[in-house]
Amino acid sequence: MLGLVRVLTTEDEKVLQEHSKVMKKKYGIASISRCIPDQPNGIHSEETEKLAVPKIEKLVKDMIENDHVTAITISCAADPAVDLCRETTDVPVFGAGEVGAYAAVMVNRKIGVLGITPHVPPKIATILGDRLVAHAYPEGVRKTTDLMEEKAVGKAIEAAQSLINQGATCILFACTGFSTIGLKEELVKHVEVPIIDLVQAQAIAYSLIILKGGDYFEPTYI
């Protein structure tokens, strides 16, 4: 069973389970979603990431002990606390940003990153290297909850098109909230380049560490 850590605090069960729902529907992967407390706007700055790290560490330990998950994914493009949790747990731990970035470099060399902050998450930027050709974010969107606004999808589509105009031939999402609003399903109607969705990338990463019969092995991290 995959444990899925959400860094957006929510009491809306539909929102909380959205990433688990996508994994189950598209890949048949069963997962348990839990969210950290007291961060209703998620992670959108260095300050909010620092606040989230100890909460993530605690939640990861709780999920391993109480939910008996056999792998953990931190469903955030910034990959907060991923390295720390790898050092303190005995199960595979990965993050949305890193697995999405690795997926992108496997399929393309001119990658545009679509996020919600002025800067590309550091781990994503490091993995992409010189394959990163452009970065954009929707006008007026600076935190995950902004994506729930009525015009957010349209603005995200405009930002994605700007990446293509700058030479990108692949789009990598740098926010898992894009999955929550179903952006990829809308974006494929407007652009004809590969699109890497971070929730789907996490599901694929998990599928690579499962062996038939329910056995697990510790992956080698690149």
Detailed description of the structure:
- This protein has 222 residues and is of the alpha/beta class.
- It has helices at 13-16, 18-27, 46-67, 82-88, 96-107, 122-128, 152-165, 177-180, 183-187, 198-208, and strands at 2-6, 31-35, 71-74, 93-95, 111-114, 132-136, 170-173, 195-196.
- The strands form two sheets. A four-stranded parallel sheet has the order 2-1-3-4, with helices on both faces. A four-stranded parallel sheet has the order 6-5-7-8, sandwiched between helices.
- Helix 6 links the parallel strand 5 and strand 6.
- Helix 2 (18-27) crosses helix 10 and helix 5 packs parallel to helix 6.
- The longest helix has 22 residues, at 46-67.
- The chain is globular, with a radius of gyration of 16 Å.
- Mean pLDDT is 92; it is low at 212-222.
